[in-house]
Amino acid sequence: MGYNVLTAQVLSRKAELNDRRNEAFRLHTQIEKHDALEPSGLAGLAESETRRVASLDLQLSALGSSIATANERAQSIYSATLPGWKPSYWFSEDRSRAKKARAQLSAEIETSESNKSRYSDERDRALAAIAGARQALEEHSAFDRREAEKRLVSLGDEIDQRAAELERLEAREKALADELEVPLREFLERRARLDVLKADLQRANRIERELGNASNSYERKQLHDECKSKFGTGSPREVIRNAEKAIASEERNSKKLERRLRAIERRSTLEIDLLVIDGSNLCYEGDKLIGLFALREVCAQLPDSLDVIVVFDGSIRKKLGVSDDTLRSQLRGTRVHIAASKAGADQTILDSAQAKTAFVLSNDTFAEFPDKSVVQEDRLLRHEIIGGRVMIEDLSIEVEYSNRSS
Questions:
Q1: How far apart are CA 78 and CA 75, in angstroms?
Q2: For residues 94 and 398, what is the distance between their CA atoms, to the nearest angstrom?
Q3: How many CA atoms does the CB half-sphere of 234 hold within 13 Å?
Q4: Does the pLDDT at position 304 exceed 80?
Q5: CB of 84 within 8 A of CB of 78?
Q6: pLDDT band (50, 70, 90) for residue 239
Q7: 162 near 17, Cβ under 8 Å?
Q8: Which residue of 140, 229, 247, 285 has the fewest C-beta atoms within 10 A of its own C-beta?
Q9: 3.40.50.1860, 3.40.50.11980, 3.30.70.260, 3.40.50.150: which CATH number matches 270-400?
Q10: Would you give the DSSP letter of residue 312?
């Protein structure tokens, strides 16, 4: 069971980066091939091979005619080579000359056939060379070198950017793995113990059933002995009670650990570009008004790269006894918006966080706004303010504040 969801992202990003690098290599190879090719040389080769094909066609035609003629002559003297049925002809000079002539013709035909096959192969190679030269010329002509070089430069920039992003993602993956290591190991150990306990419970239940079905004291003794040998007690009911209690405890603790693992996973995978803070919400520790002290410390802890908006409802002026200018001066460097009412502030907060990478920091559930995307997608971050400390787990913020003026 694994919780490091960043591992899949790392593998996906690596595959994408390799695709870009392979494309860049192919383009680089194509450009080098294009630059190395000499069109005039290819055109000359195609022309030379075309003339060679024409010459070979003439030779093949002549060989074809020669072979046909020789075959006709061989056929015409074939009957003269046969012994016939006159013994005087079997060893005659006429038959001997006919056989010699036919043998010579056969040799000529064999030589001509061999030459014909060789010339035909040469012709095929010449035709292939012509086709290759013409295809190379077409590809050379169709290849947009300027566009390819432009794409190669673009790919180089993209590869550098993706490589840097992958490096950062791998660092996040390792950090998450380190954070998950101890609780995940404990979770897996508890699940293993739970499996053992459930197996023990199943076995004890089986012994208890068989005890109820035992027909004599000997069978019951055997079952009690089995129970004692396995569990250290001869009472399967005792084992069942203890196992059920232990299972309930392990399941509770496992669920707590699983919730923690999920929380760690969520925190490590959050991508936040905009944080909309419910300013009024952070002015209270429980029901106690604490002013802007905690809020200021939180804003100071946020990275400069993060876009931040703090939204108050209009009642904050009276509660804190400050004007709008004073309120903004207390949060210098942070965008501040003051809505006319609580409902107006809630609406502004949620409407400001419509982007997928926009989150809201508030302990309000916004139950009356189930249609808002930030609520539907649970892009709500919670905080705890207690004993002079502010804790925002999803942002890895834990900071002290003091009730004093700046």
A1: 5
A2: 122
A3: 7
A4: yes
A5: no
A6: very high
A7: yes
A8: 229
A9: 3.40.50.11980
A10: E
Q: How far apart are CA 334 and CA 298, in angstroms?
A: 11
Residue ranges of alpha helices (H) inside 270-334 are: 293-301, 316-320, 324-330
Structure tokens given for 286: 């429980």
Q: Examine the pLDDT at 404 and tell me if it is beyond 70.
A: no
Q: Spell out the residues 6+ positions from residue 322 whose beta carbon is closer than 8 angstroms to its own.
A: 316, 330
- Cβ within 8 Å of residue 192, ≥6 positions away: none
* DSSP codes joined into one string, 175-215: HHHHHHHHHHHHHHHHHHHHHHHHHHHHHHHHHHHHHHH--
Task: Give pLDDT tens digits for 326-372.
Answer: 888 888 889 999 988 888 899 999 999 999 999 999 999 899 999 99
Contacts 24+ apart (CB under 8 A), 163-168: 163/17, 165/13, 166/10, 166/13, 166/14, 166/17
What residue spans define the domains of the chain?
37-143, 177-267, 270-400
CB atoms within 10 A of CB 187: 21
Report residue 178 as tokens: 């380190």
Which is it for the CA torsion 342, 343, 348, 349, positive or negative? positive
Strands (E), 208-306: 274-278, 284-285, 288-289
Q: Which of 7, 3, 10, 8 is nearest to 263 (CA)?
A: 3
Above 80 in pLDDT, residue 115? yes
Closest CA relative to residue 346, chosen from 300, 306, 315: 315
Angle of CA points 394, 400, 403, to nearest 5°:
130
Question: What is the chain's mean pLDDT, rounded?
Answer: 91
Amino acid sitting at position 328: R
Beta strands 358-361 and 335-339 are unpaired
| Nearest 10 degrees: Cα torsion 217, 223, 224, 226 | 150
Question: What's the one-letter identity of residue 6?
Answer: L
CB neighbour list of residue 342: distance below 8 Å, 6 or more residues apart: 280, 313, 315
In the prediction, which pLDDT does 1 show? 47
Q: How confident is the model at residue 406 (pLDDT cuts 50, 70, 90)?
A: very low
